[in-house]
Amino acid sequence: MLKVLSNSHLHGRLRSFSSNISSPVVQSRVPSFRFFGYLTNSNARNSSFTRRAFFCSDSNDGSKPPVIEEVEAEKLTAESEIATSDGVEEVELRSSSAMVSTNPRPEDYLQVIALPLAHRPLFPGFYMPINVKDPKLLSALSECRKRQAPYAGAFLIEDETGADPSLISTSEAEVVHELKGKELYDRLHEVGTLAQITRIEGEQVILVGHRRLRITEMVSENPLVVKVDHLKDKPYNKDDDVIKATTSEVISTLKDVLKTSTLWRDHVNTYTQHIGDFNCPRLADFGAAICGANKNECQQVLQELDVKNRLRLTLELLKKEMEISKLQASIAKNMEEKISAEQKKYYLNEQLKAIKKELGLETDDKTALSAKFRERLVANKEKCPPHVMQVIEEEFAKLQLLEASSSEFNVTRNYLDWLTALPWGNYSDENFDVHHANTILDEDHYGLSDVKERILEFIAVGKLRGSSQGKIICLSGPPGVGKTSIGHSIARALNRKFYRFSVGGLADVAEIKGHRRTYIGAMPGKMVQCLKSVGTANPLVLIDEIDKLGKGHGGDPASALLELLDPEQNTNFLDHYLDVPIDLSKVLFVCTANVIETIPNPLLDRMEVISIAGYITDEKMHIARDYLEKTTREACGIKPEQVEVTDAALLALIENYCRESGVRNLQKQIEKIYRKIALKLVRQGLVQDEPSPIVDNVVTIPEESYKRSESTGIVVDENLKVDGEAEDSTNKEASKMPEPEVQISHTCAGNQDLVSQDNTESKEVQETLASKNIAKVIIDESNLSDFVGKPVFHAERIYDITPVGVVMGLAWTAMGGSTLYIETTLEEQGDGKGALHLTGQLGEVMKESAQIAHTVARALFLVKEPDNPFFANTKLHLHVPAGATPKDGPSAGCTMITSMLSLAMKKHVKKDLAMTGEVTLTGKILPIGGVKEKTIAAKRSGVKTVLFPSANKRDYDELAENVKEGLSVHFVDDYSQIFDIAFSDDEITEK
Length: 991
Description:
Largest sheet: 7 strands, mixed
Low-confidence stretches: 1-13, 15-102, 686-772, 987-991
Radius of gyration: 53 Å
Distance between the termini: 133 Å
């Protein structure tokens, strides 16, 4: 058993040891000073004192545990009368003579098993547990204990070459276990410690250090057994002032360090129980053993046999440890102060809450939250569905049972926040006035009669039923035709809240259906967010870019939209976050798409598609004049009387710069024009903006001296510079006046002469001049390029009279529609060389149409001219101009046949003729798409006669009269009808 000393007793030992270094009186009966007395008193040998020794017996043979005996030294002196001149040797001899045992003494072991230590050396008097992985070595250690020889040598492993001893590697222990035999012997430090094996538990061996050893040679490799020499400290002078001073400083430093660490005090207690009292060598070992130095510094202390040097090395290590302890204490103090401040603030806040609660001034967080959520439900409580109210009440009960600091509390709070924020059964009052809706739609949009008619039908049905059922409308058309703005107008006409979200590129189903509440940062889907945002259960929701839905690892959003947009399913739409059904049947969904071909068929089946083909030139003129120009002028801060854009300029802008179906690019160009106008007006008005004390010298310019600049359209005097300086002789006198101010006073109403003699009225005159005397900017076709640059488009019509083999076709493009020429020429002639060569970057479908056209043309030509082998002996080259533009589609079939026959018969086709239609091998004409766009393109190119398939007559009849005006349209269902029209009697024969 170990006897634990109290802290006060321990400090007393150290103090007494320090004082007895220089004291001639030795308190021999006090155990703490026995060894120190031998060092400081020359008569210590003759004094009576008690020695302490411990014996280690094998725990497996049933013998008693280590016994510590008190034996009088005088009774044993006869057994060990060895005269020495050194007090330290006498102490050692007396200590050994005090051990009464039949076992061999430690100094009798000259061969020991070598145990490698990875991290620190073992100092005499200290315990050290080590792990032994080698079964053979573990068996040898157990055998040593059984033979009453429980000793081994503990030696520190040397670092590898180039390794940093201050860095600890997690693989050091593994390296120690892998070293064997000679390799291990070469890595061991020469000086180690004789260690007693006190206990073996599994792979763990408990060692207690006894004395220093030095390896002399290796005896065996597995396990590693070495011969050793037992080392003793070199003799030292106990009266040396340096040793006394160093010892005192070591003790003083130890006292300071012991005040900061309880662990160190425990080391002292254990050490004194096994070794006895401190002397100078033991003090040095103790200090080095308990400090936190690296293993090489500790090994240096262990192998140092000069007591003076050992004390010095230990003092250095202890001083470093003291600095570390001070730094540790400083860090601990700062952390404690910070934590104490936070705790104090927390306690005060809790007390404040308790006081307010007792006074009725404030409720706790959970009560306040519950009151807040219940207050939201007051307006819609009667309209809220019973199954939703049941969930809300259950969540209220759960909230009261949860701690405010728990994560589940925040989840429940957020869930209740969403549940109570939704407008359960709260509908906005709709306006079913058809005339009011028609007025609003006309105000916001020009044309689009089919779209407006469909919206008015929806309102009329709602008026007759008394309530409107939500529908799903899909507006499809090219960019810039106003699909999104139509949604705004519908919401305004119906008096519904408007909410828009885009699904372009959306690849996560959770954006539609919401996240599960178990996820961190979970949120409901877009529809739940929409209802919370608008505050009504019947808004108009615009789902933009539905044709550009993505599909990624998060699922298929198009499939998730099926439940949202299906009228039969959205009455019980289930969001993953809310997990309660929501009625979306009253929501009016409006979707927008550029093309409907990319919309999945199950989703497209649930929508009512309204196609917006785009605007013709006449409609663009009205939109630009009535909407775009007005809005842009107001946005730029320009007054109507300051600028004039002529109809010719707008028409040129539309024809040469903005041919696309929409008006977005037209709006950009108009904004560009007005920005340049604003800059010119500001530059023109700079003189008026600068205050001047002289206002008497105002030069009046006659109105007839003005003319409009051909390049800018600004009305200016041809004899004046921009800064107002005169150039001609008539203004030389005015230019000699002191800083005269020339004002251009031409306005729409005429000229005004503003002359003032009173300086007090100068400010008023300046404001009048600045507001009225600004020249008017006129934009017409002649100066349009100065504002928007060179024209982007040119006339689509290449030929006034199409040559032989050239026919004009009609094509649909993303910009609305255009004319497309088909050219066929003779490439090579010879017997049996009939073939067809195609160019013009044609798609697969169009190439197949060309092959079909070639076959039909040969068959028809064989009927018309049986004796003419043109197609059999001629290689034709068919080209579609604008080779950089990819082209595809079957609707050019009839145009290709006509082009080949024109070349074969050497006849021109009818003047101002354009055609479109898909042809079969039997000559039947199939319907095509984009009738409106193709009609607009034909009219824009000056075509008089247009050929359409008979099946497209219904589409053509639905067009506005202004679109069909001036066109002679023929509907055909067989190519023979096209042949008769294209090659009528007024054709021109090739000479």
